[in-house]
Write a structure and sequence with these properties.
about 290 residues; alpha+beta; Metallo-beta-lactamase, Chain A; 7-stranded mixed beta sheet; 8 helices; binds zinc ion
Length: about 290
């Protein structure tokens, strides 16, 4: 897989112009849907849940900006993308669609959108502000619990209202295009679900590839590399922060005990690497692309 810095502030690691990177039978490509400001660290991470002074020092920043790495795969001639980025204001300029096109993937050729969950930075790029679809031929694969939770009237007026409104705008016009998946199910050729609740009720990670060549699509079990060093820090965007910690510990243990590379949506581009044990926690070894 090659990493090319584009002339704009977005970029992609592409497999399409020669030297295709494959995981088993799947061809992979990572493009950027642009950076995402998640606000003040103390509103995102519960520093009180970590006794470590170094972590508290990280929290003195005025805001944390993370990446939105979108993984595109080609499997048995069909194309899927994981996540769609946060909504954009301009109907005519979707940075994600531009990046996919420059990576050789036309938005019309996308058969499946596979968000790990229904938060606004994961489903917000399904529709344009003008109500048209960015990916007119795609079905949308989600866990049914997330669809039910984020479309429920009970979310309005709560801390999750912004995500709920984005979910309504992006999912309601597509209810007949939803593909609902269960745990441990092949929802798309070469893509097997692993229900990993906590961040949201239906949050789902994926094991992709074939044979012994596999890649783990993490989703938002981890947002920032410091959560590997200190996995018990509670994430305040989690629907259930305690379940989020429990799931994070299980998944990191799962990854560290195997030589399976992992893909992190919010890590520095392109977000691929290995998780290894380091002291009481874990560390991230980025994979060159
Ligand atoms: Zn996210």
């Amino acid at each position: 897989m090659r990493h090319r810095q584009a002339t704009t502030d977005v970029h992609h690691a592409s497999i399409v112009s020669g030297g295709a990177v494959k995981v088993g039978d799947l061809e992979l490509c990572v493009v950027s849907a642009g950076p995402l400001d998640i606000g003040e660290p103390q509103k995102a991470f519960d520093a009180a849940s970590s006794d470590d002074v170094k972590v508290r020092e990280l929290w003195t920043k005025s805001s944390i900006v993370v990446e939105q790495n979108v993984l595109a795969i080609r499997s048995q001639g069909r194309v899927a993308i994981f996540e769609t980025g946060a909504p954009t204001k301009d109907s005519n300029a979707s940075p994600l669609c531009s990046e996919l096109t420059s990576a050789g993937i036309e938005p019309e050729s996308v058969d499946a959108i596979i968000p790990t969950h229904a938060h606004l930075d994961h489903v917000g790029g399904i529709m344009r502000p003008n109500g048209q679809r960015n990916f007119p031929n795609a079905r949308i694969h989600l866990h049914p619990s997330d669809v039910e939770f984020w479309l429920a009237d009970e979310r309005l007026g709560t801390r999750g209202e912004r995500s709920a409104l984005v979910a309504r705008r992006n999912l309601n016009p597509n209810l007949d295009r939803l593909v609902l998946h269960a745990d441990n199910q092949e929802t798309f050729p070469g893509v097997t679900t692993m229900h990993t609740p906590g961040h949201t009720v239906g949050h789902t990670s994926f094991v992709i590839g074939s044979g012994s060549e596999l890649l783990f699509v993490v989703g938002d079990i981890v947002h920032h590399p410091c959560q590997l060093a200190f996995p018990r820090i509670r994430m305040l965007f989690d629907t259930d922060p305690d379940a989020g910690v429990e799931t994070r510990l299980k998944v990191l243990q799962f990854l560290a005990s195997r030589t399976m590379p992992a893909f992190f949506y919010h890590f520095p581009f392109p977000g691929c690497g290995f998780v290894e044990r380091a002291g009481e926690g874990y560390c991230f070894l980025p994979m060159p692309m």
